[in-house]
Amino acid sequence: MLDAVTTRFIETATKLTSEALAAAYDDTVRLRGQGGREASRALKLSASHESELQAMVRAVLLPRASELNAFRSGLFSGAKSAYVMAARAVHRRESLAQEHYHVLLRPFAAAGVEIPPRAAGPDA
User: Fold this and answer.
1) Cα 98 to Cα 80: distance, rounded to the nearest angstrom
2) pTM for this one?
3) How far is it, in rounded angstroms, from Cα 35 to Cα 42?
4) For residues 30 and 118, which has the higher predicted lDDT (pLDDT)?
5) What percent of the chain has a predicted confidence (pLDDT) above 90?
6) What pLDDT score does 120 carry?
7) Nearest C-alpha neighbor of 96 from the set 50, 54, 41, 52
8) Three-state SS letters, 71-89
9) What percent of the chain is helix, strand and coil (3-state, nearest 5)?
C-alpha cells in the first residue's frame, strides 16, 4: 500500500494546468542526461507497489486525457510517465540518495508542486 505522502503527491496532478504538466514532462526528459537516468534506475519498487502507483497515476490523469492531448499530442502519456517516475521517488524518499531525489522532483517543484521533504537516508 502506498503511503499518504505518495498518494497526496500523485493527487497534485489534478491541480496542474496542461502547460505546467507539459513543462514538467519536458524538464524530466531534459534532466535524463543530467543524472535523471541514473536516478530513475535507483527506483525499484515491489511489483505490488509499482502496480498500485501506476494505477493511481493513471486514474488521476485519465479524466484529463483529452484535455492534455488537445494541448499537445501525446501529453497524457508523457505526463503519466513523468508523474510515475516522480511518485516512485516520493515513495522511496527515505532510501533514495539526495541528488537522485532532487533531480527527479525538480521539474515538479518548478511547476509549483509542493515537494515532500526527503527523510533521512543516504547522503542525508
Assistant:
1) 23
2) 0.90
3) 11
4) 30
5) 77
6) 57
7) 41
8) HCCCHHHHHHHHHHHHHHH
9) 70, 0, 30
